[in-house]
Specification:
With 204 residues, this protein is α+β, with helices and mostly antiparallel strands. The protein folds into two domains: 139 residues, Electron Transport, Fmn-binding Protein, Chain A (Pnp Oxidase, Chain A); 54 residues, 2-Layer Sandwich (Alpha-Beta Plaits). Helix content is 23%, strand content 34%. The chain has six helices and 14 strands. Strands 2-1-5-6-9-10 form a six-stranded antiparallel β-sheet, covered by helices on one side. Strands 3-4-8-7 form a four-stranded antiparallel β-sheet, with helices on both faces. The chain has a two-stranded antiparallel ribbon with strand order 11-14. It is elongated and about 70 Å long. Bound molecules: iron/sulfur cluster (2 copies). One iron/sulfur cluster (SF4) binds next to helix 6.
Length: 204
């Protein structure tokens, strides 16, 4: 798996959930399919009068979520920026060619109320619940940096084995200290709660 394959999978999913935060800090989410994909970025269409557009203009941070029929979750976190003015109309036309239903929603020249945003720098989390053990990995596109999330076992480990007993994925290897196989970890926190030595650190 890699970032390019994740983008391809999102393209196959087609309709994605886009989450932003409004001016009062409340989450806002909507489905979008007016998207054009490149190898390592994508751009999407909305209308300039929508609250979504205002949220993107004000803050820009967006999370995009897709879920495949194979139980793969792909979550992309990045910043959306309007494409430069001299590319707007070309990008709108590309999206309208690829998504013919848009001509019904915005017939003729009414598409000019639209605006295209692009995401070129993002962190992509891939999470496959359809295999055993489960598999997760994080990738980046552009200049985005990956941030660690999950649980880590520290040197305070006394090797009692209580964490492995409660781990649903049995993804804790022997060692001193023991080691969590990060690619197979659910981030469920059962090991953290069970550890008698307080040796497990949560990083969120
Ligand atoms: S967080 Fe859950 S899945 Fe991950 S190592 Fe701990 S118990 Fe196992
Ligand atoms: S429960 Fe805590 S102390 Fe025991 S093996 Fe796991 S990490 Fe180490």
């Amino acid at each position: 798996m890699d970032a390019k394959t994740c983008l391809k999978k999102l393209e196959y999913v087609g309709v994605l959930a886009f989450a932003t935060v409004d001016s009062e800090g409340a989450p806002q989410i909507r489905n979008i399919s007016a998207i054009h994909y490149n190898n390592d970025s994508f751009y999407f269409f909305t209308a300039r009068g929508k609250a979504f557009c205002k949220e993107l203009m004000t803050d820009g941070r967006v999370q995009v979520l897709g879920y495949t029929k194979y139980k793969e979750m792909i979550r992309l976190s990045g910043v959306a920026k309007p494409v430069p003015d001299d590319r707007q109309s070309e990008c709108i036309d590309v999206i309208f060619e690829e998504q013919p239903y848009l001509k019904n929603v915005y017939p003729g020249d009414t598409r000019s109320i639209g605006i295209v945003f692009e995401i070129t720098d993002a962190c992509i989390e891939y999470f496959n619940l359809g295999i055993n053990p489960i598999f997760r990995e994080t990738y980046t596109i552009g200049s985005a940096a990956a941030k660690f999330k999950g649980y880590k076992i520290t040197d305070a480990c006394i090797n009692c084995g209580a964490c492995l007993d409660v781990c649903p994925q049995k993804c804790i290897d022997n060692g001193s200290p023991r080691v969590i196989r990060q690619n197979n970890c659910l981030h469920c926190g059962a090991c953290f709660k069970a550890c008698p030595a307080g040796a497990i650190e949560a990083v969120n």
